[in-house]
Design goal:
The chain is α/β, with parallel strands linked by helices. Helix content is 33%, strand content 20%. The chain folds into 2 domains: 155 residues, Response regulator (Rossmann fold, 3-Layer(aba) Sandwich); 145 residues, Rossmann fold (3-Layer(aba) Sandwich). Helix 3 links the parallel strand 4 and strand 5. Helix 2 packs across helix 3, helix 4 packs parallel to helix 5 and helix 6 crosses helix 7.
């Protein structure tokens, strides 16, 4: 039987201003109850862990004006719909569903509860009471690539991938574009594990990549297995979602992390103030949601300085990772020189950048 955990925040109820005029609700309950649906365990030290830090930031910011609950390890299946409906039945008037695979369940539930606000992460379907949000994670991936391209001695990078969706392909391609910006000889190999969080499969995939010559590893998965393996092998790696430095002090060159709290606080405040509306939000380094770990001592000073320079350029809007010329790995020009990949293509990306070996599943 699927094991789930439900955590309720404690605190005393207080009155709140009127909410949700856009949803036709005249007044708020005395306290806003907010639910979070997680695909993995809060202990994963990655994606779910980081989302839960965002939930806690909501609690800290609003105190007893809000109550938060979460359900962890929810399968991206019909189980998700049942969990979402239960959260609403339990009194949640705002629900965040935090993984791409929760899109259809959220879309099915939202019309049945027009006075509840829903927010879905990484999706592309909206409704009057359903907003979507995702991050420009590829900005951080590009910066990690700049380090990887210079640190690799074999000119072979390894990428542990979960599912072949645009988000993952975009991060992979951006990483390789960044690596090739400093080392045109770089190639990257990929192993797909069809799971967001599976420490055993992640470790096995990383070992396969090492056996194929990769000496710098990156992941779009959630556990710390890849970083830990790299540490044990004397190789290099980059963590994803949260700072994994403590799991590989030497190996962990940097990491691509997310501060979901800045978004969650923003949206909860909108509900409390009655200004929430359905939006398609894409935030990045400029807004503070995408953050990169300071390069460790293994990274030469000049390379760390280049990393910081390019980070500042991204924040200032002077550098976009997908500025041409960029070809795909079949040799087709995808982005002309001086042009930037259009937003519509960026968020539906289905091609590998030149330097990524193999075919997309």
């Amino acid at each position: 039987m699927h094991r789930r955990r439900l955590l309720l925040a404690s605190g005393l109820a207080t009155s709140a201003a009127s909410l949700w005029p856009v949803l036709g609700r005249a007044a708020a309950p005395s306290r806003l109850k907010v639910g979070f649906v997680y695909p993995g365990p809060v202990s994963d030290s990655g994606w779910t862990y980081q989302h839960d830090l965002g939930r806690k930031m909501v609690e800290k910011t609003f105190g007893d004006r809000v109550e938060t609950v979460f359900v962890e390890k929810v399968p991206e299946s019909t189980d998700a719909e049942r969990v979402i409906r239960q959260l609403v039945a339990d009194g949640c008037k705002m629900v965040f569903t935090t993984s791409f695979g929760f899109m259809e369940p959220t879309v099915r539930v939202a019309p049945d509860f027009p006075d509840v606000v829903f927010e879905h992460c990484s999706g592309y379907k909206t409704a009057k009471n359903l907003g979507i949000y995702q991050t420009r994670f590829y900005e951080g991936a590009y910066l990690l690539g700049v380090i990887a391209g210079r640190m690799s001695k074999t000119n072979t990078l390894g990428y542990v991938a979960p599912f072949p969706i645009p988000e993952v392909i975009r991060n992979l391609s951006s990483w390789v574009v960044g690596a090739r910006s400093v080392n045109p000889k770089i190639n990257a190999k990929v192993v797909w594990i069809n799971s967001w969080y599976d420490p055993t499969k992640e470790r096995e995939a990383a070992q396969t990549l090492i056996n194929q010559g990769a000496d710098v590893l990156y992941q779009n998965t959630d556990s710390t297995s890849v970083v830990q393996l790299a540490e044990s092998k004397g190789l290099y790696a980059f963590g994803q979602d949260s700072d994994m430095t403590r799991f590989g002090p030497r190996a962990h060159l940097s990491g691509n992390t997310l501060n979901w709290g800045v978004y969650y606080v923003h949206k909860v405040r909108q509900v409390l103030e009655g200004t929430w509306k359905s939006e398609d939000t894409k935030w990045g380094m400029k807004e503070g949601i995408v953050q990169v770990v300071t390069p460790n001592a293994q990274v030469p000073r000049d390379l760390a300085a280049l990393f910081e320079q390019k980070k500042a350029e991204i924040v200032a809007g002077r550098l976009h990772p997908f500025t041409g010329p960029i070809k795909d790995n079949a040799g087709t020009l995808r982005v002309a020189a001086g042009q930037t990949l259009p937003e519509s293509e960026l968020w539906t990306m289905k091609w590998y950048a030149d330097g990524v070996l193999g075919k997309q599943p």
